Amino acid sequence: MSDTAVKDEAVDDSGTVITPSQQLREKLSAFRFNDEMSPSLRRSPRGRTPRPGRYAKFEEVDSELPTSPSAAAGLSSKKRSRTVERKVKAEDSGAVQKKARASRSSSPKKRQVAPPEKYAHLDPLSDHLGEGSDMLDVLFCGINPGQMSATVGHHFAHPTNHFWRCLHGAGLTDRLLSASEDGTLPGRFGLGMTNLVERPSAEAAELASSEFTAGAPALLRKIVERRPRTVCFVGKAIWESFIRAAAPPSKSPHPPFAVSGSGSESTTAQIFPNGIGTGGSRTPRPSESPKRSPSAKKSKSSAVSFVYDLQPYKVVHDTPDAVVRETLFFVVVSTSGLVAGYQLPEKTKQFTLLKQRLDELRNGSLDTSAMVAIPSVMS
User: Fold this and answer.
1) Residue 110 lies in a domain
2) CDD domains this protein is in (predicted)?
3) Is 155 labeled as catalytic in the residue annotation?
4) Per-residue DSSP letter, 144
5) Is 144 designated active site?
6) Percentage, residues of the chain above pLDDT 70
7) According to the model, what pLDDT value does residue 210 have?
8) What CA dihedral angle connects 366, 135, 212 and 371, to 10 degrees?
9) pLDDT tier at 171 (50, 70, 90 boundaries)?
10) How open is the CA angle 61-64-69, to the nearest 5 degrees?
């Protein structure tokens, strides 16, 4: 052994030589794991209340298991991606539902014009005009036979229609009649029944606008032949279709009425352009047409609300044997149960006003001199 090696070695108490490697092992043995001196590992107290004890402090430290920065970043990234994904799905679902609701509310399904063969199995309704001329106080004109009415063969037969209850409520009949009694109206009460369009349909929207125009000449012929005191249009739309076809544009009064007051009902005098009318309760409600947007500009003519009352037109009967010399025109709102803007009490008031106008016409207190006479024959 060389002198250098002896210098690096040590000798213990027994004289045994201790090599450098043995010295290193003895030094490292001080850091060796000892079961008796080290606390035992325990389960993480996560999810339960830790019990106070000798090693409670160590348990808190051990429960927070260390993770590498890359692993922590990965977990955080996954959480963020799942949160964003759920949020996007929720937003997409909400957007789809909102779009569906807007589509249903803004663009309701509209019926198309029905071809003639769709309701070819239904027969038109018969008119009830009485046995001769000059015997009808009121000739009621509806739009066309509804599907229910055409099926049973009687006017205004749908159970939700208010026509028969309005007649009785206004005192035009002495009791509430059923639709099956429509044929008795001319002889018992001086009331007639007809329609502007003959062919039946489930809804008026299934009729073409040309059918309304085509029905005007036939209605005018019935008026000239039967000479009723008044013709009552059950619905504003059919009145407008008829008068556009029957009245010369140059003679159309404008505006038809000017109603004083702004309430839904008034008892002040009704003012026609030239003083037509005598006054009485009215229902100056907005027309049945869709509402305009607030930003739409209104013309002077649209500023005047349509009045369900007598209209400033008449048909003059100049035949020598005529008892009724003039036929006037009255308009009430449609009595269909689908007209939600007018309930039964409001509709009954309009029929009551019709009866009042009829009484004024009979006793001669109604001045019709300023009304526009429409031709009795349409070109």
Assistant:
1) no
2) UDG-F2_TDG_MUG
3) yes
4) S
5) yes
6) 59
7) 86
8) -20
9) very high
10) 125
